[in-house]
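Memo to structure team: turn this sequence into structure tokens by end of day. - J.P.
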Amino acid sequence: MIVDIVTRHPHQALAAEKVGAHPVSEAGLDYDVSFDAVCSQQSFDACVRATRPCGTLLEFGMFWSPVTLNNTLMMKEITVIPSIFYGHNHEHHDFEEAIDILARQPHLIDAVVTHRFALIDAAEAFRVAADRRSGAIKVHVSLS
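Reply from structure team:
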């Protein structure tokens, strides 16, 4: 399986490479499955363009403003699967699953946890997490 990823920032491309994805400057065409984790009109439209007819688009997250569904989505008969996470199906708890995945595949931690802070520095940790220029993907605050 080949996994292409379009990233906005160079540090995201480096993290993608660490986990075996292939960073590309622009998505190709005719992917069986596309994942949108940005949840903007631009990212949604890019996934629709990149997904093959009768393919699947997984929408991870929440749009904070209305999104226009264009005719391409209908003409290609793409199946859209929404997911907002946080265990709304009450069968799975997302954070528990994420911890389980990281326990089984610890190499993923180094790819996604880009910054670590002590609890006393939590304010700085939140500042770094909110600053897109910081290179942060996931910021860890240690309780010890």
